[in-house]
């Protein structure tokens, strides 16, 4: 397959060549016509002699009456004898019907449909000399509008013995001038064409060089090198493409770093509790510990903690794939919120926090109750983890034009502005610590966002450093009972 550069070069080159060829042809024909008219014929309606109307009428009468060529030639002779012009009269069938001087008939003038006069070249019967003029000087018509004849005039250039004037011979200086003009015109067209093709080649290289660099960078990224970037030059569409590529490559690199960090985080989250469980079980096996209720309860808590991590990973995978099973019902929005608050009242109390519940106008939503409680639970756990003792968690329900709204706000340390755009991304943690008490695995908010959108809702966050964070979730209202 031809490269894009070659196709652009060929397409634009074809346009240049056709344009130059057309220009050259039109110029050649125009020069040929103008030289023939100005040098060979030197006649137009403004330069031709003024013909007496009485003589013209006599010619018309002769043609109408079918006068012989000799009669027409005699009339034409009386018309042109005192001028420096020769003439040819053709009848309505474009046949010669009289010439002046009479010897001109021996040169075999013929009239073609395109308005050209042809004379035989006495030096070569097979190469007639063509003299083009702007059509007949005069057309004679009858009352019905039919052509009776045509009158052509051209200046006297020494016609003798039926031979063409020297000025009409092929090697006349004017013809040599035409040849030189055409030669230089051809050279200039070829030179301009070559220059245009060179410019096109350079231009195509300049236009496509960034795309070639992009192609190479894409191949490197496909091979696993996410550090590839391309230089941005100018502000055109190609520059925008390069900027978009760099942004995409940067995002891929960031996601890859997050993935690697997630693997480390998950390994860390699993390593410590699994090690604890193994040590406790080995101690029980070796008789160093007693398998009493407290020990079993401790091991069970560790197992449940890891089960939650595995469930979060599974929920996230299903939600992002769009295959998570939902069982929507028409729910009393405030009632579900109240249930979630009661379920976390103990944890909030243990963290020495205050819970403020504010209710607005009652609303009903269509949602999966289990997943809705999971959303609220993740947000409340997040608020508890990031609010210091003595702080407040405020849960507010309301209604607006978009539907039912719940806002969960805390008075914690807030989220730095540079992190707000990324907190819903999987494995992203504002706290770079590996501690599950502060940083977690970075999956909770991602799950919240995916579950909310799967049920037709929207979530947003606002935060101010040192003053707290507020998550706002909106669900469409349900008209069902």
Automatic annotation (TrEMBL):
Its keywords, alphabetically, are: Kinase, Membrane, Phosphoprotein, Transferase, Transmembrane, Transmembrane helix, Two-component regulatory system
Which residues lie within the region annotated Disordered? 105-125
EC number(s) reported in the record: 2.7.13.3
Q: What's the superkingdom here?
A: Bacteria
From the UniProt record, list the reaction(s) this protein catalyses. ATP + protein L-histidine = ADP + protein N-phospho-L-histidine
List the transmembrane segments. Answer: 6-29, 184-203
Q: Where in the cell is it found?
A: Membrane
The UniProt GO MF terms for this protein read: phosphorelay sensor kinase activity
Q: InterPro entries annotated for this entry? A: HAMP_dom (IPR003660), HATPase_C_sf (IPR036890), HATPase_dom (IPR003594), His_kinase_dom (IPR005467), HisK_dim/P_dom (IPR003661), HisK_dim/P_sf (IPR036097), Sig_transdc_His_kin-like_C (IPR004358), TCS_sensor_his_kinase (IPR050428)
- Report domain HAMP positions: 205-257
**Residue intervals of the Histidine kinase domain:** 265-479
- Known PROSITE patterns for this protein? HAMP (PS50885), HIS_KIN (PS50109)
Q: What GO terms fall under cellular component here? A: plasma membrane
Checking PANTHER family in the record gives: SENSOR HISTIDINE KINASE TRCS (PTHR45436:SF5), SENSOR HISTIDINE KINASE YKOH (PTHR45436)
> What is the protein named?
histidine kinase
């Amino acid at each position: 397959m031809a490269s894009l550069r070659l196709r652009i070069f060929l397409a634009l080159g074809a346009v240049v060549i056709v344009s130059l060829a057309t220009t050259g042809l039109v110029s050649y024909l125009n020069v040929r016509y103008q030289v023939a008219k100005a040098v060979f014929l030197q006649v137009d309606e403004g330069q031709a002699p003024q013909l007496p109307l009485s003589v013209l009428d006599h010619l018309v009468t002769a043609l109408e009456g079918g006068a012989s060529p000799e009669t027409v030639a005699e009339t034409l002779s009386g018309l042109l004898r005192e001028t420096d012009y020769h003439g040819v009269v053709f009848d309505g069938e474009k046949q010669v019907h009289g010439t002046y001087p009479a010897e001109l008939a021996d040169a075999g003038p013929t009239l073609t449909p395109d308005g050209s006069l042809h004379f035989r070249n006495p030096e070569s019967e097979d190469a007639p000399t063509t003299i083009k003029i702007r059509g007949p000087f005069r057309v004679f018509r009858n009352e019905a509008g039919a052509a009776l004849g045509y009158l052509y005039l051209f200046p006297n250039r020494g016609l003798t013995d039926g031979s063409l004037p020297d000025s009409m011979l092929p090697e006349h200086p004017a013809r040599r001038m035409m040849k030189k003009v055409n030669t230089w015109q051809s050279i200039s067209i070829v030179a301009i064409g070559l220059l245009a093709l060179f410019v096109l080649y350079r231009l195509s290289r300049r236009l496509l060089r960034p795309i070639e660099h992009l192609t190479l960078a894409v191949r490197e990224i496909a091979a696993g090198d996410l550090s590839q970037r391309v230089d941005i030059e100018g502000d055109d569409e190609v520059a925008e493409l390069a900027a978009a590529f760099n942004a995409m490559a940067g995002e891929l690199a960031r996601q890859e770093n997050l993935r690697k960090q997630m693997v480390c985080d998950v390994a860390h989250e699993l390593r410590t509790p699994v090690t604890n469980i193994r040590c406790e079980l080995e101690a029980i096996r070796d008789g160093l510990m007693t398998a009493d209720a407290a020990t079993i309860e401790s091991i069970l808590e560790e197992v449940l903690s890891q089960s939650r991590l595995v469930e979060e990973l599974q929920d996230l995978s299903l939600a992002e794939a769009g295959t998570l099973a939902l069982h929507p019902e028409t729910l009393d929005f405030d009632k579900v919120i109240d249930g979630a608050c009661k379920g976390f009242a103990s944890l909030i109390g243990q963290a020495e926090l205050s819970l403020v519940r504010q209710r607005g106008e009652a609303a009903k939503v269509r949602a999966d109750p289990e997943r809705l409680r999971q959303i609220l639970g993740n947000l409340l756990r997040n608020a508890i983890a990031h609010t210091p003792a003595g702080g407040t968690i405020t849960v507010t329900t309301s209604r607006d034009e978009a539907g039912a709204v719940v806002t969960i706000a805390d008075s914690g340390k807030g989220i730095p502005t540079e992190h707000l755009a990324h907190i819903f991304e999987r494995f992203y943690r504002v706290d770079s610590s590996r501690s599950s008490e502060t940083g977690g695995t970075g999956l909770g908010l991602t799950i919240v966002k995916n579950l909310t959108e799967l049920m037709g809702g929207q979530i947003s966050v606002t935060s101010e450093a040192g003053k707290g964070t507020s998550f706002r979730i909106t669900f469409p209202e349900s008209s069902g009972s």
